[in-house]
Specification:
9% strand, two-stranded antiparallel sheet, mainly alpha, 2 domains
């Protein structure tokens, strides 16, 4: 049976009429800044962070690899990662990838929103010169080099895959400086703890991940998990000595 592929070129007929939508900050979208002076804005850092989520114990990511914290490489020999420790590791990883992004970028000036949107795409997918799936993939290099931001943002918006909402948001960031609603790290942490409690005691990938969850919950709240057995409380108490 032949495979079916949708057109992978954006034409003028495909373009989203971005002028119909309000620009959140025209300075952010239109003021060109030398590449060497650009850095990820606090808005894009929060965007990526809140869409990554914090998990203090090991789990398997969508790539079936062991993860922990803010979707970083997992290590089951560690006791677990508090939100603060996870953030420190994540921001170092984010900044390392930002340096790689700047080395690959061929434009010498961009607006803050253009920089942020493409940086998010690069960090979350490993590539900013193409976007899509095996069924439909758009090549963006020519659009970027010719500053065809309407074409780039349209490609991001109509692409498929399980990360489509993120790509659509990146299109809005580039064209409208619309970063969505921010989320404070303490709320991200609280949501991570709530998910931990929901999973306890039997919805972890193994006993080591369960022990990490017990440690992290105590480290963040100074309380034992609800329904934690006395024997496991003693084990944790010994670990914390």
């Amino acid at each position: 049976m032949p495979s079916f592929k949708l057109p992978n070129v954006i034409t003028s007929k495909d373009l989203i009429t971005w002028d119909l939508f309000p620009v959140k900050n025209s300075t952010t979208t239109s003021t060109l800044i030398p590449l060497q002076d650009l850095e990820a804005s606090n808005d894009i850092i929060n965007f990526v962070l809140r869409n990554t989520k914090w998990t203090g114990y090991c789990y398997y990511g969508i790539d079936n690899k062991l993860k922990i914290g803010y979707n970083l490489k997992g290590n089951q020999e560690d006791p677990g990662l508090t939100e603060a420790d996870a953030f420190n590791l994540w921001i170092a990883d984010f900044k390392d990838k930002e340096r790689k992004f700047k080395k690959q970028m061929t434009l010498d000036t961009l607006s803050q929103s253009q920089y942020d949107g493409l940086l998010s795409l690069f960090y979350l997918t490993g590539d900013f010169y193409s976007v899509g799936t095996d069924t439909r993939k758009f090549q963006l290099r020519e659009y970027i080099e010719n500053r065809k931001w309407e074409y780039i943002s349209t490609a991001l918006t109509i692409t498929g895959g399980n990360q489509r909402p993120l790509r659509q948001s990146e299109g809005k960031i580039i064209m409208l400086a619309d970063y969505g609603l921010p989320k404070a790290r303490n709320l991200i942490k609280e949501q991570g703890l709530q998910e931990l409690v929901k999973r306890y005691p039997n919805r972890f990938i193994n006993e080591k991940a369960k022990a990490q969850a017990e440690y992290v919950y105590f480290a963040e709240t100074q309380r034992f998990l609800p329904n934690m057995s006395e024997s496991r409380k003693r084990l944790l108490a010994n670990l914390l000595k």
